[in-house]
Amino acid sequence: MTDEQGVPERVRIRFTPSDKEVRVPTGVPIFDAASWNGIAIDSTCGGHGTCKKCKVQILEGSIPVQSLDRRAFSQDQLDDGWRLACVARATGDLLVDVPPMTTRPKAATFGVGRQVILRPAVQKRFVELTEPTLTDQRTDSQRVFDELDDLELTVDLDVYRTLGQTLRESDFKVTAVVVDDRLIAVEPGDTTSRSFGLAFDLGTTTVVANLMDITTGTPAAVTSMLNKQQPYGADVIARISATMLNADALGHLQQLAHETLDTLAKEACAEAGVEANEIYEVALAGNATMVQLALGVNPEPLGVAPFILAARQFENVMASDLGVTAHPRARAVVVPALGAYVGGDIIAGALASGMDRDKRLRLFIDIGTNCEIVIADGERIMATAAPAGPAFEAASIRCGMRAAPGAIEVVKVTDGDLELQVIGDEPAVGVCGSGLVDAVAELVRVGVIDPSGRFVDRDTVMETHPHLAERMTLFGEEKVFVLAEPTSPDGDPVVLSQRDVRELQFAKAAIATGWSLLFEDFGIEEHDIQQVLLAGSFGTYLSAASAVRIGLVPKIPVLRIVSAGNVAGEGAKMVLLSAAERHGVTTLLSEIKYVELSDRTDFQDRFIDQLAFPT
Amino acid sequence: MTDEQGVPERVRIRFTPSDKEVRVPTGVPIFDAASWNGIAIDSTCGGHGTCKKCKVQILEGSIPVQSLDRRAFSQDQLDDGWRLACVARATGDLLVDVPPMTTRPKAATFGVGRQVILRPAVQKRFVELTEPTLTDQRTDSQRVFDELDDLELTVDLDVYRTLGQTLRESDFKVTAVVVDDRLIAVEPGDTTSRSFGLAFDLGTTTVVANLMDITTGTPAAVTSMLNKQQPYGADVIARISATMLNADALGHLQQLAHETLDTLAKEACAEAGVEANEIYEVALAGNATMVQLALGVNPEPLGVAPFILAARQFENVMASDLGVTAHPRARAVVVPALGAYVGGDIIAGALASGMDRDKRLRLFIDIGTNCEIVIADGERIMATAAPAGPAFEAASIRCGMRAAPGAIEVVKVTDGDLELQVIGDEPAVGVCGSGLVDAVAELVRVGVIDPSGRFVDRDTVMETHPHLAERMTLFGEEKVFVLAEPTSPDGDPVVLSQRDVRELQFAKAAIATGWSLLFEDFGIEEHDIQQVLLAGSFGTYLSAASAVRIGLVPKIPVLRIVSAGNVAGEGAKMVLLSAAERHGVTTLLSEIKYVELSDRTDFQDRFIDQLAFPT
Question: At residue A572, what are phi and psi to the nearest 5 degrees?
Answer without folding.
Answer: -60, -40
